[in-house]
Amino acid sequence: MFQLYTRIGCALALLAGTQAAQADVLNFDDLHGLQFFTTNYHAFQFGTNHIDDTAWFHTDQANAPANPKSGSTYLSTDYRLYGGTAFEETQPIFSQTAFKFDGAWFSGQDAVRYELFNGSTLVYTSANSASLTEVPQFVASGYTGLVTGVVIVGSQGFYAMDDFTFNSATVAEPPTRAMLLLGLGAVVSGVRRRAG
């Protein structure tokens, strides 16, 4: 009987481990200087990636109240490409591979929110964040489904974004869980046959 409980305990521990997938973080610390995005970055594209009209740039230069969460580099948008009003949509951050977007860290002025897309379909709009300050705060997406694009809505040019947090492995989790549950069922079934 002790072996039965040991096997069930091991199976449950494995099952619990598959549910908490490791999040990936784009911290931008491998980018240096002040530069507009003109290439893909770790399988993500930030806006048009065309030097004449891309809105996203990275910088490691101090510019309070914009501050990075980690390291010295953060992203921001070029306010000159927008009308200068609050709550404008920036160019999307998108990937060819669907991912679960957890959120990102922001500092600056005003507030931000997300519009999340799967292909060209808007699937979720988050609530506004708390007012931004020079101390970075995590703004959670509030959405647990898969997306291919994230649009930041806010006063463009007046916030810094860092530690973009996502999980592209979410797609592989359900089959793994199903196999573990089937294995656990087989262990319990085998023990019942022995006991009966």
Plain-language structure description:
With 196 residues, the protein is α+β, with helices and mostly antiparallel strands. The chain has one domain: Sandwich (Jelly Rolls), CATH 2.60.120. Helix content is 21%, strand content 34%. It contains two helices and twelve strands; from the N terminus they run αββββββββββββα. Strands 1, 3, 6, 7, 8, 9, 10, 11 and 12 form a nine-stranded antiparallel β-sheet that branches. A three-stranded antiparallel β-sheet has the order 2-4-5, with no helix packed on it. Helix 1 (2-19) runs antiparallel to helix 2. The chain is globular, with a radius of gyration of 22 Å. Mean pLDDT is 82; it is low at 8-20, 170-176 and 178-182.
Task: Note the topology.
Elements: H1 2-19, E1 24-26, E2 35-36, E3 45-46, E4 56-59, E5 74-77, E6 88-89, E7 93-108, E8 112-118, E9 121-125, E10 137-140, E11 147-154, E12 159-167, H2 173-195
Antiparallel strand pairs: 1-12, 2-4, 3-7, 4-5, 6-11, 7-10, 7-11, 7-12, 8-9, 8-11
Question: Brief overview, please?
Answer:
The chain is of the alpha+beta class.
